[in-house]
């Protein structure tokens, strides 16, 4: 029997160990950022992220200026994605532009990592939790999603947390985790509607599993889920009213979905031809992970623990749903990386489960449990030494890599039968690290050049190859300059005080993010800078803007543009150059006294 004096000492050791563990998890984003040299943000490939940034910086001015003009075409839909905007707005108000972005991202990383770590720690111990953290923090898809103000940055973290809480093994606090799961899933839905089908099939799969394994508590669990979801929806409405503007974000969200569902817009944004897919190698990762995960947990469903079954079933159901929506339906959920990134929450959790299961009983319960996370960590570190993978699609290179990954999973299964021998432990860990390397290669391989395919849309290619060890100085400086634009322009003063932008089309790539602050091409004069023609005149006379904002990286053509606006009584009210590092944004703000009511 332990002595009375040894019990307090044992408790103190446990408390110290728990405190160290908690601190390690809390600082894991910081350690990963510097240790893995994570890219904070990619260079903008689309103006849509900045169209959300503006609602974190000065949302009321955007609603004041554009509500009347944009409501018929649902062009203010970005302002209703409150799961992203409310916490982002709070972070911006507390810390400012770039610091607010960094703090918010830190929180989003913890939202993904902490529940995932706790899930696998409860299932298989601390080192399993470490594997989960490494898989998440080294994923180029997740890192890229976190790097912009597009809603997938927040939604992917909410999906991580929602699925981890849903699968959390806990008899004492089971309903607390269930309520938390419902809350995170609702945050994901009200962040971006593309998350809704993934959440719905996940809840459906879990409900089916509960019906089979825990039928008595299904009805009461459903009540808790419904109450949690409704509570989150109401709280977000209050937050939207206090911090952004409109109280009702639900009806406008539904209306925007109806509007975007029109056949003309579907034809514009969704590829009717499936032949684009074989050029995109990262789309092979989810099915490969599902195959490896199913092999790891086995097909004897009655023997599979409930948390494992929930994760594997949810990931499989989400993948099938995305395939059906993309290729049998009319939702661009796989062809746009801003949407397909949402799949990576379930994919990452299933991959973690596969790694942990394939390493047991070889490593489980031994002093060698650290070996797997160390070798998994070595994979992204090795990639950073030379982060260059040639472009390839599915055939033949992609299929070959997938075949190698599946063969390695088969080897891991065989090694697992050997038992806890030193050679088996080393072979198991190396094999799983090679699987991680193969999946990383599939993820970062650039899309190869190919001819324009009929009935396909021109979507941007994700910069996954530079997510690890990639430079982000230019992108960060551009973000700093972009977030200063609303301050340069000043707040709107009356309803309908529209602002149009005028900028050189030759500088479109450099100006994609800044013009997004004032809704990009919706509010851009179509004529070349300094050459106001019939199209530009028609736009000005139809929109009757109070202000014109000239933007350029050089300032060339600004005087001529001011002269061209003479028929509208222009008045130059502000000039400046917004600078950060090597980025310089020249800006002139012009009031059109013919329309300005100030």
Describe this structure in words.
The structure is a single chain. This protein has about 600 residues and is mainly α. The protein has two domains: about 35-40 and about 75-445, no CATH class; about 475-590, D-Maltodextrin-Binding Protein, domain 2. The protein contains 25 helices and four strands. It has helices spanning about 5-25, 30-35, 50-55, 60-70, 80-95, 95-125, 125-135, 140-145, 150-165, 175-190, 195-215, 220-245, 250-260, 265-270, 285-295, 305-330, 335-340, 345-360, 370-385, 395-415, 420-445, 475-490, 510-515, 535-545, 560-565, and strands spanning about 500, 545-550, 570-580, 585-590. A four-stranded mixed sheet has the order 1-2-4-3. A hairpin with a 2-residue loop joins β3 (about 570-580) and β4. It is globular.
Mean pLDDT value: 93
* Distance linking N and C termini: 84 Å
Q: What's the overall geometry? A: globular
User: What does the radius of gyration come to?
Assistant: 26 Å
Tell me about the largest β-sheet. Answer: 4 strands, mixed
In N-to-C order, the SSE pattern is HHHHHHHHHHHHHHHHHHHHHHEHHEHEE
List low-confidence stretches: none
- Proportion of beta-strand residues: 5-15%
Strand order of the largest sheet: 1-2-4-3
Structural class call reads mainly alpha
Number of separate strands: 4
Amount of helix: 55-70%
